[in-house]
Write a structure and sequence with these properties.
The protein is mostly helical. 72% of the residues lie in helices and 0% in strands. The protein has one domain. Helix 3 (21-41) runs antiparallel to helix 4.
Amino acid sequence: MKQYQIDQMSLLERAQAETPPFFVKLRNIALALAAVSASVATSPVDLPPLVLSIAGYLGVAAAAIGAVSQITVKS
């Protein structure tokens, strides 16, 4: 796929296109980090505020990494 073709793709087309292997692994790591973050944030155990803050930042970072990894296309 040529660069000008990639530039003309919509966001939906980019999300459905083939993703390079590195970004597939990165997306899977981001999903695992998001799951860990969600489980810590919703834990019934009373955790220190620092731990909850780190879990929140981890969730935001995982979402950003996952989104960028998903819309990366193989050229």
